[in-house]
Amino acid sequence: xxxxxxxxxxxxxxxxxxxxxxxxxxxxxxxxxxxxxxxxxxxxxxxxxxxxxxxxxxxxxxxxxxxxxxxxxxxxxxxxxxxxxxxxxxxxxxxxxxxxxxxxxxxxxxxxxxxxxxxxxxxxxxxxxxxxxxxxxxxxxxxxxxxxxxxxxxxxxxxxxxxxxxxxxxxxxxxxxxxxxxxxxxxxxxxxxxxxxxxxxxxxxxxxxxxxxxxxxxxxxxxxxxxxxxxxxxxxxxxxxxxxxxxxxxxxxxxxxxxxxxxxxxxxxxxxxxxxxxxxxxxxxxxxxxxxxxxxxxxxxxxxxxxxxxxxxxxxxxxxxxxxxxxxxxxxxxxxxxxxxxxxxxxxxxxxxxxxxxxxxxxxxxxxxxxxxxxxxxxxxxxxxxxxxxxx
Length: 392
Prior knowledge:
This protein is an alpha/beta fold. The protein is built from 20 helices and 13 strands.
């Protein structure tokens, strides 16, 4: 075996979405390494999807994540413990390269440690924090630039931002372009879920984080209850992102007496089959857009976090949904903070369902957005960029 034919890569990410993106990248890394006749050993902070794709987990971070100051407090100690565990491992077993995926706070810590550790480990940031959207100052931007050897950008605006700041950036496109290539067609999905042709299917997507169950699930269920009273042929489907959420969501379905089905292993089928989605902000918004499903995006934090952001940090975020961020355009409606009420959700949902002009405008805008996400082969392009760094 050639001396350089075995490579060790460390990956750090968190939450459900990071686990998904990490698994797609790991699969591509193995494909591209095989073409080079390389063997890869991948160790990671991530989740079970990454483990199934071939990573050895140092710790499971798929359920450890939050957005907001108050919301992050319960996860501070578990995150710190995982960070310490990872740093001890890296010190004893330095990898040939490290990849950071999203997961801003923890990954800034990991990247900074690697840069100052003297281990001489190249660092790649894939799906970098959205400094180009909501940066308060340039501190984190400079930190990211200083600790990375390469940023692999998934949005064109992200690439332009970091390149302008002097970082080494390559735009590879959005990895969901690859994932959605094998998504089921609408009619196929509806058949698999036994949805009749005259039924209206609404996907309810309340949470991939515990905090979202608290702030979004009750209002989504209250709105669904009202929609159910107004639309006799409606059926609700709820994709389950984490098994731990099952009892809470099942109880909510009973409490609000919803005609709702909780689905764990057929998330793409639920999304593809839907006439409308009422959803949290996140990666799932792009999945829905690529499936041509109209959606309403809602976003709500602890009121103290929201007050700190607005009053003290002077945050003025134009959009929360990735769909709207791609081209900085209001493609899908968003309800934020105080505007997240059952009445507002119902009114917007009815318009998206029954106003044909509004639905068609959404589909047209989706197509425009799709053209800015790159061509298929995103994960393999990212993998090649990473493996090329290992050749140097």
